Request: fold
Amino acid sequence: MRYHILYRYMGFILLLNALGLLVSALVSMVYQDEALTLLLYSAMVAGIFGIFPMIFVPSPKQISNNEGLIILVGSWLLSCLLGMLPYLLWGGEFTFTNAWFESVSGFTTTGSTILSDIESLPRGLLFWRALTHWLGGMGIIVLALSIMPAMGAGMKVLYQSEMSTLALDDFQNRTKSSVRILAKVYVGLTGLEVAALMFCGMDWFDALTHSFATIATGGFSTRNLSIASFDSVLIEVVIMFFMIVSGVHFAMLFAAISGQAKNLWRSPFFRYYLTALAIGILLSAVDLNIHKYSGFWEALRFGSFQLLSVGTSTGFASADSAIWSPFTQLLLIFFSLQCACAGSTSGGIKANRIVIMGKAFIRQMKQLQHPHAVIPFTIGRRTIDRDVFENSVLYVVLYITVVFIATLLLVATGTGFLEAFTGSVATMGNVGPGLGSIGSLGNFDGITTAGKWILSLTMLLGRLEIYALVMFFIPKHWKTYASF
Amino acid sequence: MKLRLKIVSGFLVMAIMLILAGIWSIYELNNIGVTAQNLIKENYQSIHAANTMLNALEGEDNGILFLLLGRWEEGRRLLSSSDSLFLSGFDVAKNNLTIPGEAAVVDSIRTRYAALKAIWEKPIVETYKERNIDWYFIEVHRAFQDAKSAVQALQILNNDTMYQTATVMENRANRAIMPGIIAMTAAVVLSLLFNFFINHYVVNPILRLNRGIRNHLDDHKPLEIEVETHDEIRELSNLILTLSARSARRD
Reply:
């Protein structure tokens, strides 16, 4: 294992972080707030750690799968570690644990927060907080790959590790150009949303930070009451649109924009994703109309926003879902588990795996009816290998196991059952809010210190789709690891 | 990059981080000192003045009670001394307006005290007011409570500001310490990394060079030297290989 090579690649990611911190410092300068010095200092520390390996380590010709994995996971962890510096330096509500939690929540695009008074933070710090979402959203590694000069096989290794394994099956382009396409879609969507939100009346700062959080499906708002503080149907509609779009496979979005919109609708995953959301919205609207809101349109407005927010793992709030009826809350839990499509910035089990398991169930029913028939396992017009199905089932089982264990540990550390379970679901799915005190308008400050560390771990497990993080911490596998 | 530059830059980055952390810590500690000084000057003085005024008001209340009992001399003496005490406290408070809203509170104290003073300045002994408890409770006690609550409002305002300032100071102390802690931690990590790189890119190549030459001389093995970096060590290894090749050709 060439540790120096690993550090060189991770160093580049740290330099990106340093650049992000410098941009945040610029925002601080514009608003003349108190975060300027601490952002500059953090940028300096990140920059020093980033540039250090460049002094010594020459650029390697290629990297192995093992090294790609270590770079991927190591970069995430280092980014989270350095990303907490501005919070630590600010102090206030940011203890060491809280700073780590907030940083991990940012980079994993979860959006769970420990802050009870978000608006008391200086603008520069709020900008950095939102930027961690944006940087984490597409994966720092993938962004780096689109900028760095030809890395050859190394790029492919890192790309395979970063994107959900299901997304790879769909994506036929060469890796380097694929990454550039993804980056263009990502940046393009962000720009469009900024323009749309400013048109709806948001100032540039709020438009930019909320766009970062939407496209990355993160959920950090600059307001204490999240989107509810704007009280604008227009803003909510714009954000809902971009949340839906951000939950779609980015390559398919690019194809749709390039004139192949039919392919988007032909995808069974996309169809299921939209249909599930539509049914969920309708059910929640009816339930909320009966139990909470007197008018159907009011119920539809708040129910649809919250369901979309959770169903795309964004985590914004336009109402307090903690006081809604159990039926709608259970719907929210289901969508927190499922989330959006593979190939997007969303977390969760992914709609694709649900479709695969559903198709497998139908196929199994047919097989039971016709035991001697040869029934291919197809989704759309493609035949799916048995491996894909088995991996999907295994992943779902692992996912639920992790949620269960995390809930158990949280309850053991003194957290209430509702917060423990929904917190585990929300962090594992990188959704953000749970129910109870950690609901859509709540925060995670009341969770115990040990609980916050457990939830930080579930955020990382969810973001790295379990396997990558587990492999990282088993040194034996570094030598024998082949390929995903 | 040249070897000397690599080694110097390693030490340089650590030095820069420590220096900047030191400067920032000194700046924040200085701010803490200034804030503490202002805390005493602005808030504590006003609180002390409010306490003085409250004591004076109690004294005046006692003075009025003495008059009510017909004890003119003791009553007037107490009222006079309490009035002086109150005005001295009031002077400090009115010349120390540092908090938003404090001016309005001081104005309120002035108005209410004037109302109370107007009551005891008029004759009490040998009038209908003497031994008249009803008059005391209806007029005096109400005016006394009004004046007292105005002074207490000043006290509360300054107490709240002191609490907020103390919280700010706590944050500033944290901000003074944190850069130092981060710089020290980073310096330790960087020095470990620096040590690793020096070993990998300077010490190990020299040792390999050494081993290769020794094997060539002792066991007549072909000279094999592998150097990753593009610096003086690579130059040295190339020169040694050239020397060895020339020597072999001559032989």
